[in-house]
Specification:
mainly alpha; 20 helices
Length: about 500
């Protein structure tokens, strides 16, 4: 059988050798999203005063957070549209589109005049900016996660999926550091007048870098795979009409069709779940949705810490941001430890269960300490503990939920499920917590929400893991290979060895 042609330029190394560039290109959008999110979360009180002036600081904060939530409702639509676009034109085209829209939304957010200058048009511009960001964020995560998994080292596709969580932490950390520096160097009046715009302007610097990585070799073109390419290890083999399907997905070792437009260099033709894939999806998608929902709620409660400290506990922005920076640094280190642990140990269930139970046990006492003794010490204890414990478990959860979906449709399906979960709960978590605190007068609300999210996640994770362990073939590509009992997992990982 003749070797499959390559789309790589003459003399270029296989896609595997450019994995670091691919990782940077794939993670740039996730980094920018959470950088902007951290900046918005920290400066939400200032943004509220600029665009929703009110005599009640909690009311202005709530309006600001609700504006931020608007973008989340566009995520499923973005996932659908960009998912179709990616299946039609390839991952690189899809990721170029999402990053361009993300940059446009960030620019509009940074430059929009305040309500005092242009009246009601000001909040309209902010809402449009958030809609652009939400649409692009929804379309980003599926193709980017699939690209990370496909280019990971042999056997570590699921582990490397946690790079999405890592870049979320790093983006948040960058936003927190910028916020801390501004809070220490600018006066209270300057922060509220114009200082809140600075982090959004600085964030625009990553846009040309990300576009350059994605446009000039940061990613191989759609279908560009060598014989050692990642898709060759995904259990994707021939099926009825399989030459064209295999070539469309970049699978090598299969002779491409000679019809016009076919072959590995052509944009991938749209594919849809077959009967075996649909059976897999009905079983695991609800559980993946609950896992993502739990993680989303915990993430947004943790990132709410700055606004909570400023608006509810009445601490200074510098103290609030110092606690957040310490927490995010701890989370980055903890996630690295979790990834290393996952790579060495085949069964992470006791590890995840233990961390989850500890997190549920300490969340309420930590919030009570922050309320009874507000200050830098209690903020450090709260943020370091919460980010540290969730960071230790995140790699295990990311691996399971990503590898649970059939490889052939992972980009599209994970993007849709992730967008639905984040749009339903991510955008509303902080406004909901703020509303409950204002309505009940009880500042312990975030602690109770955290405990509920932990138990939701533990139940979904353990059930999903058990489902995959009983049916290891479900993690394969959802084709007849799975029906024959194939055990190939994502990136060569065997789910039965979890």
């Amino acid at each position: 059988m003749a070797p499959a042609p390559s789309c790589l330029p003459d003399g270029a190394a296989p896609a595997r050798s450019v994995a670091p560039r691919v990782l940077l290109a794939a993670c740039a959008g996730n980094f920018l999203e959470f950088y902007n999110f951290m900046a918005f979360a920290f400066f939400a009180p200032m943004i509220g005063q600029a665009f929703f002036p009110s005599g009640n600081h909690l009311a202005s904060l709530l309006h600001s957070l609700m504006t931020f939530a608007v973008g989340f409702f566009l995520r499923p639509f973005g996932a659908l549209v960009v998912g179709w676009y990616g299946r039609r034109y390839g991952q690189r085209a899809a990721l170029m589109l999402t990053f361009s829209l993300m940059g446009a939304g960030s620019l509009l957010l940074a430059l929009a005049p305040a309500t005092a200058t242009i009246g009601l048009l000001a909040p309209v511009l902010i809402i449009v900016a958030r809609m652009l960001q939400g649409f692009s964020d929804g379309g980003e995560v599926g193709p980017a996660t699939a690209l990370i998994v496909e280019t990971a080292p042999e056997g570590l596709g699921g582990v490397f999926a946690a790079m999405q969580s890592m870049t979320q932490l790093l983006g948040s950390l960058a936003g927190a550091v910028v916020g801390l520096v501004l809070s220490l160097t600018l006066s209270h009046e300057a922060l509220y007048a114009w200082g809140w715009r600075v982090p959004f302007v600085l964030g625009l610097a990553i846009v040309p870098l990300g576009l350059a990585l994605r446009a000039s070799g940061g990613m191989a073109p759609a279908g560009a795979r060598t014989a050692a390419g990642p898709d060759a290890r995904m259990g994707l083999g021939k099926e009825p009409g399989g030459n064209r399907k295999a070539a469309a997905h970049g699978v090598t070792g299969v002779e491409p069709d000679t019809a016009a437009g076919a072959g590995p260099c052509a944009p991938p033709s749209p594919t849809y779940p077959d009967r075996a894939e649909r059976r897999v999806l009905r079983r695991v998608v609800p559980l993946v949705f609950l896992c993502i929902t739990s993680g989303t709620i915990m993430t947004y409660v943790e990132h709410f810490g700055v606004s909570y400290a400023v608006a509810v506990l009445h601490l200074s922005p510098s103290v609030a941001m110092a606690g957040m920076v310490a927490g995010l640094l701890t989370g980055v280190v903890a996630l690295g430890v979790g990834m290393a642990t996952l790579a060495r140990h085949p069964d992470p269930r006791p590890y995840v269960l233990g961390i989850g139970l500890v997190l549920a046990a300490v969340s309420v006492p930590l919030y009570r300490l922050a309320i009874q003794a507000p200050g830098l010490g209690s903020m450090l204890a709260l943020n370091v503990t919460l980010f540290g414990l969730t960071g230790l478990a995140n790699a295990c959860v990311w691996r399971t939920q990503v590898e649970a979906l059939p490889a052939r449709s992972r980009s599209f399906m994970f993007g849709i499920v992730y967008a639905l979960a984040v749009s339903s709960f991510g955008g509303l978590t902080q406004p909901f917590v703020t509303w409950l605190v204002a309505r009940t007068g009880n500042p312990m609300v975030p602690g109770y929400v955290m405990v509920g999210a932990v138990f939701l996640g533990l139940g979904a994770y353990m059930t999903l893991y058990s489902t995959l362990r009983r049916s290891p073939a479900t993690v394969a590509d959802g084709t007849r290979e799975a029906d024959r009992g194939g055990h190939a997992g994502t990136g060569g990982t065997v789910i039965s060895g979890f």
